[in-house]
Design brief:
Helix content: 55-70%
Number of helices: 7
Radius of gyration: 17 Å
Distance between the termini: 53 Å
Length: 162
């Protein structure tokens, strides 16, 4: 049985937006679930959550002007998806939030060390890490995995702070 309604509202764009939003929520739930079910759990957690204006943070973390432009454009392009991540993350219970934050922080530390502090490569590695291989060809999943990582970059869980 399908969850889709046969009732048409407006010109069809509303239905498409609702279906896309519901698909986004399903993908976000999958990302959270994969992190929460991961066997490795740590008891450490970053306590420093200084929020820095994102443009300033990008300039502080990414030295190449072209890469800065690229990451700023990505933030602009998926701003709505980052907001969905923020909203759904805030609705998780504190234990789940802590587990996910710890995992993202630990993955960041692993990749930043591997990449000799190259932030762009580290972000790419994190994007790939949070996109399961079976979903790597799904553009919507890729965008939401990027939004997931950039949410944690924006809130200073990952990346350098001034």
């Amino acid at each position: 049985m399908s969850n889709k309604s046969n009732r048409q509202i407006g010109d069809g764009n509303t239905n498409i937006q609702i279906e896309t939003f519901q698909e986004d929520l399903g993908i976000i739930a999958e990302i959270y679930k994969s992190v929460l079910e991961s066997p490795k759990q740590s008891l450490t957690m970053k306590k420093d959550h200084n929020f820095v204006a994102i443009n300033k943070k990008i300039e502080f973390n990414i030295s190449d002007p072209e890469e800065r432009k690229r990451i700023k454009k990505l933030f602009e392009d998926i701003y709505d998806k980052i907001n969905v991540i923020e909203k759904t993350f805030s609705e998780l219970d504190p234990s789940q939030q802590r587990t996910i934050t710890i995992d993202v922080g630990e993955q960041y530390q692993k990749f930043i060390k591997k990449n000799n502090s190259d932030m762009m490569q580290t972000l790419e590695d994190l994007f790939n890490h949070y996109t399961p291989k079976t979903k790597s060809k799904n553009p919507e999943y890729n965008l939401l995995a990027r939004a997931f990582v950039l949410f944690f970059f924006d809130d200073c869980t990952i990346g350098r702070k001034e």
